[in-house]
Amino acid sequence: MSEPTLPLVTLARLGLVVVGLGYALFGPGLAMLAGSPFLLDPLVGAGVGPITGGVLGLVVVAGCVGLGVLNLVVAVGLGWRNPWWWAGGVFLGVVYTPTGCLPVGLLLLVALLGSQARRAYGIGQPA
User: Fold this and answer.
1) Residue 119: its H or E element
2) pLDDT tens by residue, 85-108
3) How far is the CA of 6 from the CAs of 33, 57, 58, 118, 125, in angstroms?
4) Alpha carbon distance 109, 127 (integer Å)
5) pTM for this one?
6) Where are the domains of the chain?
7) What's the DSSP call for residue 88?
8) Which of 2, 22, 30, 103 is such that its CA lies 20 to 30 A from the CA of 47?
């Protein structure tokens, strides 16, 4: 017997892929924006500006690409119907809800906290 189709979870997985690719692809551009004020400000010391800007840029790239990869991994994992991936999806939904990714966060929470999805992922069932 095949597992039931969960259209909201499928849509939430698609949202995770879109946001994940956005983070991974636009992260380097955000790093240039984050680090450029330190590189261009004449009031910042000659040795401090490039170092601070470069370190800040690397942190932003690592954070954006890391978050993008996390989105993609959770999106794939949700397809395996494992409770751990369900927890990862709920975590990302909670993280995204108070941000600019509000629609994806709400979609994740509505899709994964519904009774049909919890049953499909084995959440709340006696062992």
Assistant:
1) helix 115-120
2) 999 999 999 999 999 999 999 999
3) 40, 40, 39, 11, 18
4) 24
5) 0.83
6) 7-120
7) H
8) 30
